[in-house]
Amino acid sequence: MDKTDLEILKILQKKARIPNVEVARTVGMAPSAVLERIKKLEAKQVIQGYEVRLNPEMFHCSMIAFVHVRVKDPSRIRETGQELASVDQVQEVHYLAGEDCLMVKLRVSDNQELERILRKNITCMEGVTGTQTFIVLSSFKESAKIMLPDSP
Amino acid sequence: MDKTDLEILKILQKKARIPNVEVARTVGMAPSAVLERIKKLEAKQVIQGYEVRLNPEMFHCSMIAFVHVRVKDPSRIRETGQELASVDQVQEVHYLAGEDCLMVKLRVSDNQELERILRKNITCMEGVTGTQTFIVLSSFKESAKIMLPDSP
DNA sequence: TATGAAAGACCTAGACT
DNA sequence: AGTCTAGGTCTTTCATA
Q: Is residue B92 within 8 Å of B104, Cβ to Cβ?
Protein backbone atom coordinates (compact mmCIF):
# COMPACT_ATOMS: atom_id res chain seq x y z
CA MET A 1 0.00 0.00 0.00
CA ASP A 2 2.21 2.78 -1.30
CA LYS A 3 2.05 6.12 -3.03
CA THR A 4 1.08 4.50 -6.33
CA ASP A 5 -1.78 2.52 -4.82
CA LEU A 6 -3.14 5.68 -3.24
CA GLU A 7 -2.89 7.48 -6.54
CA ILE A 8 -4.83 4.72 -8.28
CA LEU A 9 -7.52 4.72 -5.60
CA LYS A 10 -7.90 8.47 -5.81
CA ILE A 11 -8.48 8.20 -9.54
CA LEU A 12 -11.05 5.43 -9.09
CA GLN A 13 -12.76 7.33 -6.32
CA LYS A 14 -13.28 10.26 -8.66
CA LYS A 15 -14.64 8.07 -11.42
CA ALA A 16 -14.79 4.31 -11.26
CA ARG A 17 -15.54 2.56 -14.57
CA ILE A 18 -12.85 4.28 -16.56
CA PRO A 19 -10.60 2.03 -18.66
CA ASN A 20 -7.53 0.56 -17.08
CA VAL A 21 -5.26 2.10 -19.69
CA GLU A 22 -6.46 5.53 -18.73
CA VAL A 23 -5.55 4.92 -15.11
CA ALA A 24 -2.21 3.60 -16.31
CA ARG A 25 -1.58 6.67 -18.41
CA THR A 26 -2.42 8.97 -15.51
CA VAL A 27 -0.06 7.29 -13.09
CA GLY A 28 2.53 6.80 -15.82
CA MET A 29 2.83 3.01 -15.73
CA ALA A 30 2.16 0.07 -17.99
CA PRO A 31 -1.47 -1.11 -18.06
CA SER A 32 -0.50 -4.57 -16.89
CA ALA A 33 1.22 -3.20 -13.79
CA VAL A 34 -1.85 -1.15 -12.89
CA LEU A 35 -4.11 -4.11 -13.51
CA GLU A 36 -2.11 -6.24 -11.12
CA ARG A 37 -2.23 -3.57 -8.44
CA ILE A 38 -5.97 -3.17 -8.76
CA LYS A 39 -6.48 -6.92 -8.58
CA LYS A 40 -4.38 -7.08 -5.44
CA LEU A 41 -6.34 -4.23 -3.88
CA GLU A 42 -9.52 -6.13 -4.65
CA ALA A 43 -8.11 -9.38 -3.23
CA LYS A 44 -6.99 -7.62 -0.04
CA GLN A 45 -10.49 -6.14 0.23
CA VAL A 46 -9.14 -2.62 0.16
CA ILE A 47 -11.49 -2.22 -2.77
CA GLN A 48 -14.79 -3.74 -1.70
CA GLY A 49 -16.75 -3.18 -4.86
CA TYR A 50 -17.94 -0.86 -7.57
CA GLU A 51 -21.36 0.79 -7.37
CA VAL A 52 -23.65 2.77 -9.61
CA ARG A 53 -25.12 5.88 -8.09
CA LEU A 54 -28.71 6.10 -9.29
CA ASN A 55 -30.97 9.13 -9.07
CA PRO A 56 -33.55 8.25 -6.39
CA GLU A 57 -36.13 10.70 -7.72
CA MET A 58 -36.46 8.60 -10.84
CA PHE A 59 -37.51 5.56 -8.83
CA HIS A 60 -40.06 6.83 -6.34
CA CYS A 61 -37.82 6.68 -3.33
CA SER A 62 -36.74 10.24 -2.79
CA MET A 63 -37.91 10.26 0.80
CA ILE A 64 -35.28 9.58 3.45
CA ALA A 65 -35.98 8.85 7.10
CA PHE A 66 -33.64 8.09 9.96
CA VAL A 67 -35.16 5.87 12.60
CA HIS A 68 -33.73 5.35 16.07
CA VAL A 69 -34.77 1.89 17.17
CA ARG A 70 -34.63 1.30 20.90
CA VAL A 71 -33.81 -2.28 21.79
CA LYS A 72 -34.64 -3.72 25.19
CA ASP A 73 -32.01 -6.39 25.62
CA PRO A 74 -28.44 -5.51 24.51
CA SER A 75 -27.86 -9.15 23.67
CA ARG A 76 -30.42 -8.79 20.90
CA ILE A 77 -28.55 -5.97 19.19
CA ARG A 78 -26.73 -8.14 16.72
CA GLU A 79 -29.63 -10.18 15.47
CA THR A 80 -31.90 -7.16 15.36
CA GLY A 81 -29.30 -5.23 13.38
CA GLN A 82 -28.92 -8.05 10.90
CA GLU A 83 -32.64 -8.42 10.46
CA LEU A 84 -33.03 -4.69 9.81
CA ALA A 85 -30.14 -4.85 7.34
CA SER A 86 -32.04 -7.40 5.29
CA VAL A 87 -34.85 -4.97 4.51
CA ASP A 88 -34.47 -3.65 0.97
CA GLN A 89 -35.46 -0.09 1.80
CA VAL A 90 -32.85 0.05 4.56
CA GLN A 91 -29.59 1.59 3.35
CA GLU A 92 -27.74 1.80 6.64
CA VAL A 93 -27.90 0.23 10.09
CA HIS A 94 -25.64 1.42 12.91
CA TYR A 95 -25.42 0.64 16.59
CA LEU A 96 -25.18 3.86 18.56
CA ALA A 97 -23.18 4.19 21.75
CA GLY A 98 -24.85 5.16 24.95
CA GLU A 99 -28.47 4.45 24.28
CA ASP A 100 -28.85 0.79 23.33
CA CYS A 101 -30.26 2.10 20.15
CA LEU A 102 -29.93 1.09 16.51
CA MET A 103 -30.11 3.75 13.85
CA VAL A 104 -31.59 2.92 10.49
CA LYS A 105 -31.49 4.96 7.29
CA LEU A 106 -34.53 4.32 5.16
CA ARG A 107 -35.28 5.27 1.59
CA VAL A 108 -38.97 5.16 0.69
CA SER A 109 -41.46 6.65 -1.71
CA ASP A 110 -43.77 8.39 0.73
CA ASN A 111 -45.28 8.54 4.20
CA GLN A 112 -47.42 5.54 3.49
CA GLU A 113 -44.48 3.31 2.68
CA LEU A 114 -42.63 4.68 5.70
CA GLU A 115 -45.51 3.75 7.96
CA ARG A 116 -45.77 0.30 6.40
CA ILE A 117 -42.10 -0.43 7.00
CA LEU A 118 -42.14 0.94 10.52
CA ARG A 119 -45.07 -1.30 11.33
CA LYS A 120 -44.29 -4.43 9.38
CA ASN A 121 -40.51 -4.50 9.69
CA ILE A 122 -39.46 -2.51 12.72
CA THR A 123 -41.82 -1.88 15.62
CA CYS A 124 -43.09 -5.43 15.54
CA MET A 125 -39.66 -6.96 16.11
CA GLU A 126 -38.82 -8.96 19.22
CA GLY A 127 -37.09 -6.76 21.76
CA VAL A 128 -37.87 -3.46 20.05
CA THR A 129 -39.36 -1.16 22.65
CA GLY A 130 -39.80 1.99 20.63
CA THR A 131 -38.72 4.16 17.73
CA GLN A 132 -38.04 7.78 16.97
CA THR A 133 -38.24 8.87 13.35
CA PHE A 134 -36.45 11.83 11.77
CA ILE A 135 -37.77 12.78 8.37
CA VAL A 136 -35.42 14.42 5.91
CA LEU A 137 -36.66 17.52 4.09
CA SER A 138 -33.61 18.05 1.92
CA SER A 139 -30.12 16.64 1.49
CA PHE A 140 -26.92 18.59 0.84
CA LYS A 141 -24.51 15.70 0.45
CA GLU A 142 -24.60 11.94 0.08
CA SER A 143 -21.35 10.20 -0.70
CA ALA A 144 -19.34 7.13 0.18
CA LYS A 145 -16.01 8.83 -0.56
CA ILE A 146 -13.42 8.65 2.16
CA MET A 147 -10.41 10.87 2.78
CA LEU A 148 -7.23 9.40 1.38
CA PRO A 149 -3.90 10.57 2.80
CA ASP A 150 -1.75 12.82 0.63
CA SER A 151 1.11 11.04 -1.06
CA PRO A 152 4.01 13.14 -2.26
CA MET B 1 -37.49 3.82 -19.04
CA ASP B 2 -38.77 0.33 -19.66
CA LYS B 3 -38.26 -3.24 -18.55
CA THR B 4 -34.90 -3.47 -20.33
CA ASP B 5 -33.53 -0.31 -18.72
CA LEU B 6 -34.51 -1.63 -15.30
CA GLU B 7 -32.83 -4.92 -16.05
CA ILE B 8 -29.63 -3.14 -17.06
CA LEU B 9 -29.68 -0.98 -13.94
CA LYS B 10 -30.20 -4.01 -11.73
CA ILE B 11 -27.15 -5.64 -13.23
CA LEU B 12 -25.06 -2.53 -12.78
CA GLN B 13 -26.31 -2.09 -9.24
CA LYS B 14 -25.07 -5.57 -8.38
CA LYS B 15 -21.70 -4.98 -9.96
CA ALA B 16 -20.76 -1.84 -11.82
CA ARG B 17 -17.52 -2.03 -13.82
CA ILE B 18 -18.39 -5.20 -15.69
CA PRO B 19 -17.90 -5.12 -19.45
CA ASN B 20 -20.69 -3.87 -21.62
CA VAL B 21 -20.84 -7.10 -23.59
CA GLU B 22 -21.53 -9.03 -20.44
CA VAL B 23 -24.50 -6.80 -19.68
CA ALA B 24 -25.59 -7.27 -23.26
CA ARG B 25 -25.34 -11.05 -23.02
CA THR B 26 -27.35 -11.07 -19.80
CA VAL B 27 -30.19 -9.03 -21.21
CA GLY B 28 -29.94 -10.81 -24.57
CA MET B 29 -29.25 -7.83 -26.79
CA ALA B 30 -26.49 -6.51 -29.02
CA PRO B 31 -23.69 -4.66 -27.19
CA SER B 32 -24.26 -1.50 -29.18
CA ALA B 33 -27.91 -1.37 -28.20
CA VAL B 34 -27.01 -1.73 -24.53
CA LEU B 35 -24.30 0.89 -24.87
CA GLU B 36 -26.77 3.34 -26.30
CA ARG B 37 -29.23 2.70 -23.47
CA ILE B 38 -26.57 3.19 -20.82
CA LYS B 39 -25.42 6.42 -22.46
CA LYS B 40 -28.98 7.70 -22.50
CA LEU B 41 -29.44 6.77 -18.85
CA GLU B 42 -26.28 8.71 -18.04
CA ALA B 43 -27.41 11.68 -20.12
CA LYS B 44 -30.80 11.72 -18.42
CA GLN B 45 -28.99 11.61 -15.06
CA VAL B 46 -30.74 8.41 -14.10
CA ILE B 47 -27.21 7.11 -13.64
CA GLN B 48 -25.36 9.78 -11.69
CA GLY B 49 -21.98 8.12 -11.50
CA TYR B 50 -19.89 5.10 -10.69
CA GLU B 51 -18.14 4.77 -7.32
CA VAL B 52 -15.55 2.55 -5.69
CA ARG B 53 -16.43 1.27 -2.28
CA LEU B 54 -13.21 1.35 -0.22
CA ASN B 55 -12.62 -0.39 3.08
CA PRO B 56 -12.51 2.41 5.68
CA GLU B 57 -10.50 0.36 8.15
CA MET B 58 -7.55 0.44 5.78
CA PHE B 59 -7.45 4.24 5.83
CA HIS B 60 -7.80 5.21 9.47
CA CYS B 61 -11.36 6.38 9.26
CA SER B 62 -13.36 3.54 10.69
CA MET B 63 -15.08 5.74 13.22
CA ILE B 64 -18.51 7.05 12.30
CA ALA B 65 -20.39 9.77 14.13
CA PHE B 66 -23.77 11.33 13.46
CA VAL B 67 -24.03 14.93 14.59
CA HIS B 68 -27.28 16.83 14.96
CA VAL B 69 -26.46 20.48 14.36
CA ARG B 70 -29.02 22.90 15.74
CA VAL B 71 -29.28 26.07 13.67
CA LYS B 72 -30.74 29.26 15.11
CA ASP B 73 -32.12 30.96 12.06
CA PRO B 74 -33.96 28.78 9.51
CA SER B 75 -32.83 31.13 6.76
CA ARG B 76 -29.28 29.98 7.41
CA ILE B 77 -30.06 26.31 6.80
CA ARG B 78 -29.01 26.28 3.19
CA GLU B 79 -25.66 27.99 3.52
CA THR B 80 -24.83 26.07 6.68
CA GLY B 81 -25.69 22.80 4.94
CA GLN B 82 -23.50 23.65 1.99
CA GLU B 83 -20.61 24.63 4.18
CA LEU B 84 -20.84 21.39 6.12
CA ALA B 85 -21.01 19.46 2.85
CA SER B 86 -17.66 20.90 1.82
CA VAL B 87 -15.84 19.23 4.71
CA ASP B 88 -13.97 16.16 3.46
CA GLN B 89 -14.80 14.00 6.45
CA VAL B 90 -18.50 14.70 6.03
CA GLN B 91 -20.23 12.01 4.00
CA GLU B 92 -23.82 13.13 4.39
CA VAL B 93 -25.72 16.28 5.30
CA HIS B 94 -29.50 16.26 5.69
CA TYR B 95 -32.01 18.80 6.88
CA LEU B 96 -34.36 17.20 9.39
CA ALA B 97 -38.01 18.14 9.68
CA GLY B 98 -39.37 19.53 12.87
CA GLU B 99 -36.30 20.65 14.74
CA ASP B 100 -34.42 23.18 12.59
CA CYS B 101 -31.61 20.76 12.74
CA LEU B 102 -29.05 19.54 10.23
CA MET B 103 -27.75 16.03 10.53
CA VAL B 104 -24.20 15.26 9.52
CA LYS B 105 -22.57 11.88 9.01
CA LEU B 106 -18.87 12.02 9.78
CA ARG B 107 -16.13 9.52 9.10
CA VAL B 108 -13.00 10.07 11.18
CA SER B 109 -10.02 8.20 12.57
CA ASP B 110 -10.62 8.70 16.28
CA ASN B 111 -12.06 10.82 19.09
CA GLN B 112 -9.36 13.37 18.62
CA GLU B 113 -10.22 14.01 14.99
CA LEU B 114 -13.91 14.05 15.88
CA GLU B 115 -13.31 16.74 18.48
CA ARG B 116 -11.18 18.74 16.08
CA ILE B 117 -13.87 18.74 13.40
CA LEU B 118 -16.64 19.53 15.84
CA ARG B 119 -14.68 22.52 17.09
CA LYS B 120 -13.06 23.79 13.93
CA ASN B 121 -15.79 23.05 11.40
CA ILE B 122 -19.11 22.82 13.18
CA THR B 123 -19.71 24.45 16.55
CA CYS B 124 -17.90 27.60 15.50
CA MET B 125 -20.21 28.28 12.55
CA GLU B 126 -22.44 31.35 12.39
CA GLY B 127 -25.93 30.48 13.55
CA VAL B 128 -25.05 27.11 15.05
CA THR B 129 -26.45 27.02 18.56
CA GLY B 130 -25.53 23.49 19.61
CA THR B 131 -24.78 19.95 18.60
CA GLN B 132 -25.62 16.44 19.72
CA THR B 133 -23.25 13.68 18.70
CA PHE B 134 -24.09 10.00 18.28
CA ILE B 135 -21.08 7.74 18.09
CA VAL B 136 -21.36 4.50 16.14
CA LEU B 137 -20.03 1.35 17.80
CA SER B 138 -20.70 -1.00 14.91
CA SER B 139 -22.40 -0.99 11.54
CA PHE B 140 -24.56 -3.71 10.04
CA LYS B 141 -25.18 -2.21 6.63
CA GLU B 142 -23.93 0.65 4.48
CA SER B 143 -25.12 0.82 0.93
CA ALA B 144 -26.32 3.25 -1.70
CA LYS B 145 -28.47 0.65 -3.45
CA ILE B 146 -32.06 1.59 -4.06
CA MET B 147 -35.06 -0.65 -4.64
CA LEU B 148 -35.89 -1.03 -8.29
CA PRO B 149 -39.40 -2.09 -9.28
CA ASP B 150 -39.90 -5.63 -10.56
CA SER B 151 -40.18 -5.93 -14.31
CA PRO B 152 -41.86 -9.07 -15.59
C1' DT C 1 7.10 -5.52 -9.08
C1' DA C 2 7.69 -3.57 -13.52
C1' DT C 3 7.78 -3.88 -18.67
C1' DG C 4 6.51 -5.22 -23.48
C1' DA C 5 4.49 -8.14 -26.79
C1' DA C 6 0.72 -10.68 -28.55
C1' DA C 7 -3.79 -12.84 -28.68
C1' DG C 8 -8.15 -12.27 -27.73
C1' DA C 9 -12.00 -9.54 -25.98
C1' DC C 10 -14.35 -5.34 -26.03
C1' DC C 11 -15.93 -0.73 -27.62
C1' DT C 12 -18.19 2.04 -30.70
C1' DA C 13 -19.52 4.32 -34.99
C1' DG C 14 -22.01 3.66 -39.12
C1' DA C 15 -24.95 1.28 -42.42
C1' DC C 16 -29.06 -0.87 -42.53
C1' DT C 17 -33.73 -3.00 -40.74
C1' DA D 1 -34.78 1.16 -31.21
C1' DG D 2 -32.47 -2.81 -32.76
C1' DT D 3 -28.81 -5.82 -35.39
C1' DC D 4 -24.45 -6.53 -37.72
C1' DT D 5 -19.91 -5.45 -39.15
C1' DA D 6 -15.32 -3.83 -38.87
C1' DG D 7 -11.54 -0.95 -37.11
C1' DG D 8 -9.41 0.55 -33.37
C1' DT D 9 -8.79 0.23 -28.47
C1' DC D 10 -8.42 -2.22 -24.25
C1' DT D 11 -7.51 -6.31 -21.36
C1' DT D 12 -4.83 -9.80 -19.75
C1' DT D 13 -1.38 -13.41 -19.78
C1' DC D 14 3.34 -14.56 -20.11
C1' DA D 15 8.18 -14.19 -20.80
C1' DT D 16 11.61 -11.36 -19.13
C1' DA D 17 14.19 -8.21 -16.44
A: yes
Phi, psi dihedral angles at A63 (to 5 degrees)? -95, 130
Output DSSP code: residue B63.
Answer: E
Closest CA of chain A from B139, distance in Å: 4
Residues of chain A short of pLDDT 70, as ranges, are: 151-152
**At a CB cut-off of 8 Å and minimum separation 6, what does B118 contact?**
B67, B131, B133
> Rounded to an integer, what distance in angstroms lies between the CA atom of residue A83 and that of residue A80?
5
pLDDT at A100: 85
Domains and CATH numbers, chain A: 3-43 (1.10.10.10), 56-135 (3.30.70.920)
- A68: closest CA among A145, A147, A129? A129
Q: Which of residues 34-53 of A touch strand C (CB under 7 A)?
A: 36-37, 40
Residue B152, pLDDT score: 66
Residue A23 — φ and ψ, nearest 5°? -60, -45
Q: Which residues contact B51 (CB under 8 A, 6 or more apart)?
A: A13, A16, A50, A51, A52, A53, A144, A145, B16, B144
Strands A47-54 and B47-54 turn out to be antiparallel
Nearby residues of A59 by Cβ (< 8 Å), 6 or more positions away: B146, B147, B148, B149
Report d(CA A84, CA A26) in Å as an integer. Answer: 42
Q: pTM of whole model > 0.85?
A: yes
Strand C positions within 7 A of protein Cβ atoms: 1-5, 9-14
